[in-house]
Amino acid sequence: MASEKYKNFNLADSCDLVHVSWCDAFDALGTGWHEWDDIEKKAVLAKCNSVGYLFKEDDEKIVLVADETGEYGSRITVIPKTWTIEVRTLKKSKNTR
Q1: Which pLDDT score is estimated for 97?
Q2: Residues 70, 10: contact at Cβ < 8 Å?
Q3: Which burial class, exposed, middle or buried, applies to 52 when counting CB atoms under 10 A from its CB (0-12, 13-18, 19+)?
Q4: Within a 10 A sphere around the Cβ of 62, how many other Cβ atoms?
Q5: What is the Cα–Cα distance from 90 to 25, expressed in whole angstroms?
Q6: Surface-to-core class of residue 43, CB atoms within 10 Å of its CB (0-12 exposed, 13-18 middle, 19+ buried)
């Protein structure tokens, strides 16, 4: 059951819809022995793009929520701020929380 704070909460009305570009860790070569040249070429960061409602942002993280029922949120992505490349607002919320 939703707390009183989130009673009648509407994600689309309360949070900006954003696009976040960010880097993630990546197991580029998998387990096993690899030649140094392959390691140098393939050891890259995963470039990620996520779209969702910006539920929370602080000095440490960005929290995106993709789906909601009013009472519950789903497909929550927590992105470390230091891994963030860019945050672009796609649609401003109607309300502020």
Answers
A1: 59
A2: yes
A3: buried
A4: 22
A5: 26
A6: exposed
Of the CA atoms within 13 Å of residue 3, those in its CB half-sphere come to 1
How far does the chain reach from its first CA to its final CA, in angstroms? Answer: 20
Residue whose pair of structure tokens reads 């000095």 in the numeric block: 59
pLDDT tens string for the chain (97 positions)? 567 777 778 898 999 999 999 999 988 888 999 999 999 999 999 999 999 999 999 999 999 999 988 888 999 999 999 999 999 999 999 886 5
Overall size of the chain counted in residues: 97
pTM higher than the cut 0.90: no
Residues 6+ apart with CB under 8 A from 21: 47, 48, 49, 84, 85, 86, 87, 88
Look-up: residue for tokens 């470390």?
80
